[in-house]
Recover the amino acids of this structure.
């Protein structure tokens, strides 16, 4: 599904130049559940932004289903983000001006879905995440866990092939974090590819594949053996 | 239903109502003043062009030295003791100046009417005499006054019984004593009857041509003004036969009357009993010929009457000075108002930039959810568009009274709404350009960069 060949990312800060990613080679197949781990400043968020076509690369090639993403025009990249990717962020990133329902409806409006259809789909998704009673509430009126569930509902609105989650439980208490992790696992069980950035080893071990990144280099790429974890 | 991303803009707009309102007000004031400034300049130009293209500013006026300072007042009779009296015979000067299209006389005049009220006042005023006089002189004047009074009573009685004679209820009318070329020079045609000709100038009958509003004033209510043709008007001392009614011109001409200049009729048939001094007017087709014409006429009049006995005036020269002054003032007002609009637009752009920067993180999230650069541009432009349109609308409301006030202060009539419309359109476009700049700058932000923003 995704193939990164020699990807590098250089931040030019004037006199200082920061190599956030160095010659990263990575393949992610459909249905995988990948955890990207590493300390702060290791380049894991940069890698996730590149995977989500939210950032440009300084070098290398990004192939999505054998298409070179880096050469696509902005409009096409936007269409791919809208139709194929779903994003979940640590700070939820809901729009405070919109209700939960409207937040979930928003990505569908870029997909050209009619108001009626996106409204009913958003209602369904909010019911699925247990927020039927919070549809018309603004994010400021909801708890962190509820906001993240709205964000998950939003990420699923266009039936994405890939969920990119950037420390999805980072701002949540452990019980609410567990809810979110369970939701991601269920999504993966349904066939959705999940790439999650985390610095929590326990959460990393719940993924099927664990990639460690350090100083912009892929440090480790390992399959998580569930039995070992459970044992 | 509105796209959800536009709902964000709408709700932010409402949540910052005071800031949004001030932005709209700034646009309105900028657009309003710039539109009125532009309207004033366009209107001043139009007015100036119309004024300078009129016959009055393509002619030279020749007067005697004594009359030069009082050209627009009715010319009074000149005694024989005066050095120079200009008459219609002097219009022959045009024959030696080929650049002259028309040569004519037009002297301001007033027609006083005879009616019962006038007679009563004449009786009470004690006639034309006054002051301390010898008793013989008083007796003689009293007798003269009584005779005149009886004469007037008789004339009025006779006129009132004759349906062909009009006895106006008004006291007087303004008009001009002219020679026939006046009509050609001013492109005046009749809608009823005819104009008087050179032959009529020497007739002992008195003819009159009426402007359309004057005709309305003299006709009985509900009757067609064409029925006035052939009727006579009783003035203070004679009858005038109405021979024509002019077509409506939309100018002052509609409120005037025109009678043949009688200054050169033999035996002094005019009311003053002798030749009167005239203002002679020489019209050219091309205003640039005025100087050359003036030189040739000067030569002719110097040869005929001697140096320093007459004055040739060029009304256009004074008018051009006035026009240039007004254009200068209008241009200055436009410059100041456009400068105001520019400053307002830069500030609006700056405030909108600050508003959109506060939404930088929103841009990142929207891009992550599938918005393209174009979608972001449309989103922020919509806010700029709404602010500009609402400001332009309010600016139009401001521009109309402001433009009228400025035009009135400059002595102009109310200008065309088209000028204000053009001003509103141009100034709105300028504001729009400035207000859209932040949208362009924000739409190009990298999503990852925007996402890192704390706001």
């Amino acid at each position: 599904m995704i193939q990164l060949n020699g990807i590098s990312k250089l931040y030019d800060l004037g006199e200082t130049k920061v190599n956030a990613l160095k010659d990263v080679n990575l393949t992610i197949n459909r249905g995988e559940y990948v955890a990207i781990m590493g300390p702060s400043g290791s380049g894991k968020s940069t890698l996730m932004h590149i995977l989500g076509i939210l950032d440009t690369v300084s070098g290398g090639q990004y192939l999505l289903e054998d298409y070179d993403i880096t050469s696509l025009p902005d409009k096409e990249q936007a269409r791919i983000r809208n139709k194929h990717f779903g994003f979940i962020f640590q700070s939820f990133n809901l729009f405070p001006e919109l209700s939960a329902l409207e937040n979930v409806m928003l990505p569908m409006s870029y997909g050209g879905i009619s108001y009626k259809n996106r409204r009913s789909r958003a209602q369904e998704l909010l019911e699925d995440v247990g927020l039927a009673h919070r549809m018309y509430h603004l994010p400021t009126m909801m708890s962190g866990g509820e906001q993240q569930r709205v964000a998950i509902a939003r990420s699923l609105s266009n039936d994405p092939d890939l969920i990119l989650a950037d420390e999805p439980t980072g701002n949540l208490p452990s019980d609410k974090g567990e809810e979110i992790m369970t939701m991601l696992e269920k999504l993966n069980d349904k066939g959705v590819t999940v790439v999650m950035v985390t610095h929590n080893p326990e959460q990393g071990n719940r993924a099927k594949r664990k990639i460690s990144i350090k100083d912009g280099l892929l440090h480790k790429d390992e399959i998580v053996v569930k039995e070992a974890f459970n044992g | 239903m509105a796209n959800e991303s536009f709902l964000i803009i709408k709700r932010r707009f409402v949540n910052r109502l005071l800031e949004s309102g001030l932005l709209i007000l700034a646009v309105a004031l900028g657009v309003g003043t710039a539109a009125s400034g532009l309207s004033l300049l366009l209107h001043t130009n139009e007015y100036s062009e119309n004024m300078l293209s009129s016959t009055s500013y393509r002619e030279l006026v020749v007067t005697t030295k004594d009359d030069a300072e009082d050209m627009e007042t009715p010319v009074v009779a000149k005694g024989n003791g005066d050095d120079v009296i200009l008459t219609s015979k002097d219009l022959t000067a045009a024959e030696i100046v080929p650049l002259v299209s028309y040569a004519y006389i037009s002297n301001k005049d007033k027609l006083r009417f005879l009616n019962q009220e006038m007679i009563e006042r004449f009786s009470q005023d004690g006639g034309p005499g006054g002051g301390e006089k010898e008793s013989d002189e008083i007796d003689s004047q009293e007798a003269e006054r009584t005779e005149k009074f009886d004469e007037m009573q008789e004339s009025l009685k006779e006129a009132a019984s004759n349906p062909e004679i009009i006895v106006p209820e008004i006291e007087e009318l303004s008009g001009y004593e002219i020679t026939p070329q006046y009509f050609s020079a001013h492109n005046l045609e009749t809608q009823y009857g005819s104009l008087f000709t050179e032959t009529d100038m020497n007739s002992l009958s008195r003819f009159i041509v009426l402007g359309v509003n004057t005709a309305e004033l003299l006709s009985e209510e509900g009757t067609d003004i064409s029925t006035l043709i052939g009727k006579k008007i009783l003035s203070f001392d004679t009858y005038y036969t109405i021979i024509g009614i002019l077509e409506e011109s939309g100018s002052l001409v509609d409120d005037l009357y025109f009678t043949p200049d009688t200054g050169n009729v033999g035996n002094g048939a005019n009311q003053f009993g002798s030749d009167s001094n005239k203002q002679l007017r020489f019209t050219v087709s091309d205003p640039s010929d005025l100087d050359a014409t003036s030189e040739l006429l000067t030569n002719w009049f110097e040869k005929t009457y001697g140096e320093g006995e007459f004055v040739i005036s060029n009304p256009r020269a004074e008018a051009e000075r006035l026009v240039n002054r007004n254009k200068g003032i209008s241009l200055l007002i436009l410059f100041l108002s456009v400068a105001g609009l520019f400053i307002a637009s830069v500030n609006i752009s700056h405030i909108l930039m600050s508003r959109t920067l506060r939404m930088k993180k929103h841009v990142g999230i929207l891009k992550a959810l599938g918005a393209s650069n174009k979608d972001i541009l449309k989103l922020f432009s919509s806010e700029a568009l709404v602010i500009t349109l609402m400001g332009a609308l309010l600016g139009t409301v401001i521009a109309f009274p402001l433009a009228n006030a400025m035009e009135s202060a400059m002595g102009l009539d109310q200008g065309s709404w088209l000028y204000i419309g053009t001003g509103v359109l141009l100034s709105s476009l300028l504001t729009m350009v400035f207000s859209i700049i932040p949208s362009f700058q924000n739409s190009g932000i990298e999503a990852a960069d925007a996402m890192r923003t704390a706001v």
